[in-house]
């Protein structure tokens, strides 16, 4: 329900001599606050304007709370009173006028609060400055002028409170009834919106899109599995190659003759050719080749070569294990994606159903209240 209006702010008399004199005295500070022109305004005047802004904001809010409390009391006293249709129409016209004034009043409060926030930021930069005796005198003088303005506001508020109470006393029950009807219409619209969301085609499109995305992910996982399998096969062939070259038979049969320069290139070509094939099937052809190994390898007792082959073999085993873990991770991802998004869609639909059920309960209670006030059945209201 909107806050009842305080008409004091709208009933100042600019022709009043005391009011006009006060405005004239405050004109430099008001110009600085309204237009943001600080060239003709000292830093202390900014502080004074900020305090004035804060006091006015507090006073407006206090007066609004007082009027609201009075209207609530009047509503309780007039709930059981019945008005004629003509009186109700007159009160509704008055309500429309007061609502327009209320919007203007609330807009002024918002502007005042915004101005206060802006000036408060400027005030923070002035807190550490020393206040001179002359500035303190100006503060005291402005405080007295503020007190005079506050008294004028109180007097004007007392003069207009009677008229405001007359407007509010006669239409409180009608205003409350209209608010209940508006709330009922909002609940009906929200109910229709949720029902349309529950039955809307985009949910079916979303489910189809999720299925299509899951299928694409599954196909990508199959491709990745094939690639991992191919890499594992390559590592396996390399592992067989290393085991063959580090075997005792290879070393005993081929480290026999002296080194010849042209045999080094021939040996590298043979190793390169067998690294691209299955060495298990072609071991016999390796034994038939005539090539020589450098005597340097024989002098080192083959220990560095064996250690290097062992290290490479360990690296191959470790990499093969990491690819196995990749395969397992891909399988787990594939299982999790098979229907996870669809479960979320079903969960969202159940949440919407719960909201619709709660809205229906609120709507029924509100219809019963309106029918009791107007003496009309629930079916006629629908």
What does this structure look like?
This is C2H2-type domain-containing protein. Residues 236-264 form the C2H2-type domain. Residues 88-159 form a coiled coil. One of its GO terms (molecular function) is zinc ion binding. InterPro entries: Znf_C2H2_type. The chain has 382 residues and is mainly alpha-helical. The chain has 2 domains: 7-77 and 85-170, no CATH class; 202-338. 82% of the residues lie in helices and 0% in strands. The chain has 12 helices and no strands. The chain has helices spanning 17-35, 43-78, 85-124, 133-198, 201-245, 248-254, 261-274, 283-288, 295-299, 303-337, 340-374, 378-381. Helix 2 (43-78) crosses helix 4 (133-198). Residues 1-14, 16-24, 255-261 and 274-302 have low confidence and may be disordered.
Annotation field: number of helices: 12
Q: Give the tally of structural domains.
A: 2
Q: Segments where pLDDT lies below 50 for 5+ residues? A: 1-14, 16-24, 255-261, 274-302
Shape: flat
Average pLDDT over all residues: 59
- Number of E-state strands: 0
Work out the strand percent. Answer: under 5%
Share of helical residues: over 70%
The succession of helices and strands, N to C, reads HHHHHHHHHHHH
Main sheet record: none
Ends apart, CA distance between termini: 23 Å
Coiled coil: 88-159
GO molecular function, one term: zinc ion binding
Keywords: Coiled coil, Metal-binding, Zinc, Zinc-finger
InterPro entries: Znf_C2H2_type
């Amino acid at each position: 329900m909107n806050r009842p209006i305080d008409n004091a702010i709208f009933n100042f008399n600019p022709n009043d001599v005391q009011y006009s004199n006060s405005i004239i005295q405050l004109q430099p500070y008001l110009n600085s606050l309204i237009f943001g022109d600080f060239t003709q305004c000292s830093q202390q005047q900014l502080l004074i304007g900020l305090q004035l802004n804060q006091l006015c904001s507090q006073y407006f809010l206090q007066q609004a709370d007082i009027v609201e409390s009075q209207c609530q009391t009047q509503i309780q006293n007039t709930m059981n009173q019945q008005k004629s249709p003509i009186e109700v129409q007159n009160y509704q016209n008055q309500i429309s006028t007061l609502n327009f004034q209320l919007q203007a009043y609330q807009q002024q409060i918002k502007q005042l609060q915004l101005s206060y926030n802006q000036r408060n930021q400027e005030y923070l930069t002035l807190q550490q400055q020393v206040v001179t005796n002359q500035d303190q005198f100006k503060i005291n003088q402005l405080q007295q002028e503020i007190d005079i303005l506050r008294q004028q506001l109180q007097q004007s508020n007392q003069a207009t409170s009677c008229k405001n109470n007359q407007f509010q006393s006669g239409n409180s029950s009608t205003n409350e009834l209209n608010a209940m009807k508006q709330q009922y219409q909002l609940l009906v619209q929200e109910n229709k919106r949720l029902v349309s969301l529950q039955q809307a085609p985009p949910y079916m499109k979303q489910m189809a899109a999720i299925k299509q995305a899951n299928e694409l992910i599954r196909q990508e996982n199959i491709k990745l599995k094939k690639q991992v399998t191919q890499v594992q096969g390559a590592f396996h062939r390399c592992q067989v190659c290393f085991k063959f070259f580090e075997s005792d038979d290879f070393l005993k049969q081929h480290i026999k003759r002296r080194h010849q320069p042209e045999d080094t290139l021939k040996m590298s070509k043979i190793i390169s050719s067998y690294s691209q094939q299955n060495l298990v099937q072609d071991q016999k052809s390796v034994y038939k080749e005539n090539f020589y190994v450098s005597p340097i390898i024989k002098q080192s007792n083959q220990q560095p070569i064996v250690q290097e082959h062992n290290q490479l073999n360990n690296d191959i085993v470790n990499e093969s294990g990491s690819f196995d873990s990749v395969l397992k991770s891909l399988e787990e991802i594939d299982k999790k994606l098979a229907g996870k998004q669809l479960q979320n869609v079903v969960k969202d639909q159940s949440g919407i159903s719960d909201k619709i059920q709660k809205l229906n309960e609120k709507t029924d209670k509100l219809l019963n209240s309106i029918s009791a006030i107007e003496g009309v059945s629930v079916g006629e209201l629908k």
